[in-house]
Amino acid sequence: MSKAKPVPEVVRRRAVGAVATAWEAGCPVADWRPQGQAAIAETCLRRYGSLARRGVAAGDRTGAIRDLARGLIEASGRERNRVGPLIRDYEWLAEQVLSAITDTAQGAEPDPPA
Fold first, then answer.
1. Which end of the chain is more exposed for a tag (fewer CB within 10 A), N or C?
2. pLDDT at 77
3. Phi-psi region of 76 (alpha: psi -120 to 50; beta: other; left: phi over 0)
4. DSSP class of residue 7?
5. How high is the pLDDT of residue 80?
6. CA-to-CA distance for 67 and 38, rounded, in angstroms?
7. Do residues 108 and 11 make contact, with C-beta atoms less than 8 angstroms apart?
8. pTM for this entry
9. Which of 65, 51, 62 is CA-nearest to residue 94?
10. Which helix (H) or strand (E) element contains residue 60?
11. Smallest Cα–Cα separation from 22: which of 95, 81, 77?
């Protein structure tokens, strides 16, 4: 099994920034602590890098958002069937981070998911 390519630092910073911005916007599932924000971003980056392995097509943005949200729920320790209305918050947060990861206008271009 080959190791995943390292994520460019500029992409990592954008992902963490997206989580911080989500917290400031009132997202209840984004963490207020910088280390928690970094952990959320890292979860999304790992999931993004392995979307194809879980059957999410490269161009399927909706599928990618759902998959990243699922990863965030799993990382939080919550049971997926007990998240309730917070699923919308997890999906919104996942969408914000996905946009930060895939936005090539602000810096280094990330590789598409393998």
1. N
2. 85
3. alpha
4. P
5. 73
6. 19
7. yes
8. 0.84
9. 65
10. none
11. 95
Q: Where are the domains of the chain?
A: 9-102
Distance CA(97)–CA(90), nearest Å, equals: 11
Distance CA 102, CA 96 (A): 10
* Residue type, position 35, single letter: Q
Q: For residue 73, give the DSSP letter.
A: H
Counting runs of H as helices and runs of E as strands, what totals does the chain give? 4, 0
Bigger pLDDT: 77 vs 73: 73
One-letter amino acid at 63 equals G
Q: Which residues of 45-63 are buried (b: 16+ CB within 10 A; e: fewer)?
A: bebbbebeeeebeeeeeee
Q: Is 1 helix (H, G, I), strand (E, B) or coil?
A: coil
Report the alpha-carbon distance of residue 67 to residue 53 in Å, rounded. 11
What is the rounded average pLDDT of the residues 50-71?
94
pLDDT tier for residue 58 given thresholds of 50, 70 and 90: confident
